[in-house]
Amino acid sequence: MGIDGAGKTTLARALRKELTDHGVEVVDVTWAGAVAALPGGYPRTSVEQLGVEGWRLFYAGRTIDGRPVDELVPQLFSDFGASDLPRRIGEAEGQAHQSGVITSALVELAGHFLLQSAVAAPVVERGGVALNDGFGLKNVLKCLRLAEQMPNGQVPAQTLRALAEQVTAVFSDPFLQPDVGILLDADPRLSYEWRMAQNGRLGAGEDLEFAGRPGRETYLSFQGALAAEYRSAAERWGWHVLDVDGRPQTETVAEGVRVLLGHDKVRALLADAETASIPQPTVGTTS
Q: Is 2 helix (H, G, I), strand (E, B) or coil?
């Protein structure tokens, strides 16, 4: 978990390689990863639909080349797939609807229950690792906090604050908590620089552009407030907090790998995988 641009995807990539190099099965339980990995039928069809509906709601009211994004999303998903859909709709323009942003957060919350129960749990039960580079609280809470800032909304701020507290409590439940939780506690000033170097622009919902206040300053204030909430939750949960403070990214990644490999369950998985890879002697019989 971490704010936008903290380096979550880079760390997850390194963790995946470390585990697979040791012969451990790793399944990506992000939305796009689950859609790519699951066979047809349940739960893949439901995971697809929840994701598509979440994007439709988040972008409702915005347009691409004058066409409503919420009407385009199903076709764009069909044409480009789950991994490329966010980029295709990321340059939409216009005024989003507060109600859509809020409901997209609740749809995503439902999606995390499905991913945990129908995707992650079976992987763990068969001795693999379910890897997620964006713990659900991160984006759900971000959407609710963004909705608080949107003008002319019909849902009062106090209602959204109460909902955010309830959502944080839900993600605190052991059912949704990971065995190994890592927070990349990044300085928003650094993550802004990395985001701009990486993409040349901010993504939708990363600053307060949805509230009519785009740019660096609202990115820093918005992401800074989120960072404090993520840090508070991670500390309560006993997660590992890695400071992302300008040191080389390779050092942060190496520390994250050490955290993973030091966990009892992971050590046991690696030992089992190593044992399974050792050729067993052939036992012959004579008569």
A: strand
